[in-house]
Amino acid sequence: MGSGIITLRDSNETIDIEHHFKVNAGPGAGKTTWLINHIRNVVQHSKRL
Length: 49
Known about the structure:
This protein is mostly helical.
């Protein structure tokens, strides 16, 4: 089980929806916006829902 760090350029980028993740960023970095976009991506593309 690898635990690589993924650096995103902006809150519109997506990550693999089949793996656990941890968001670590400073205040005002767009964590909430990214999380909302990620949830939308999961709902649209997950085969497990």
